[in-house]
Amino acid sequence: MENTKPWVKPALEFGPLILFFAVFMLYRNDTVAIAGQAYGGFILATLAFIPALILTTAIQWRITGKLAPMQVATLVLVIVFGGMSIWLNDPRFFKLKPTIIYLLFAVILGTGLALRRNWLGAVLSEALPMDAEGWRKLTLRMAIFFVVLAGANELVWRTMTDSTWVWFKTFGLPVLLFAFLLGNAKLYRDHALPTPKSSDDDRAL
């Protein structure tokens, strides 16, 4: 997305989630009849979210020519669990989706550690160049973090209201992820790869 405007990437990434939040807040106390079936605000929001995510994912693929494995996995799980929630008119399946996603990511990262494969670095090394030890530490921390997020999602959706879960999903989870990434700033610095000197600097020396 090098040649696109700076706002395009965050709009594509967060647009479907904001749409989900907006539709839910608009219809949270109402029901709407579709094809003879009454749907509450949560299901209506899910019904808006799925095509929006498909569209933004397709746009990202069109712009960049590629999709990260996590994007593909997320899209598939959203379609499956979101579709089940709509089909059965039951919000629980869609609420379970983040738990499945986070546990899947944790298993993938844990498997990479066990096999001594730097799968996280293969995806992020261009944006965050670090040595092998740095990637090992970050992979372990991120795997544990995803397990914690899965547990937090289970706690919220099983014990609290739909509104609380929607706020947690829309704002709480992104804030936790941002805090995690920020909290590892020292790791990034300690294991950053040295910046190669330019040819002009070499000649000056």
From TrEMBL:
Keyword Lipid metabolism: no
Any one Pfam family match given in the protein's UniProt record, by short name: IspA
InterPro entries given in the database record: YciB (IPR006008)
Localization of this protein: Cell inner membrane
Protein name: Inner membrane-spanning protein YciB
Membrane topology annotation: Multi-pass membrane protein
Residue runs in coiled coils: none
Similarity-based family: Belongs to the YciB family.
GO cellular component entries: plasma membrane
Source organism per UniProt: Paracoccus hibiscisoli
Record keywords: Cell inner membrane, Cell membrane, Membrane, Transmembrane, Transmembrane helix
Residues annotated as transmembrane: 7-27, 33-55, 67-88, 100-117, 138-158, 164-183
Function: Plays a role in cell envelope biogenesis, maintenance of cell envelope integrity and membrane homeostasis.
Record's keyword annotation contains Disulfide bond: no
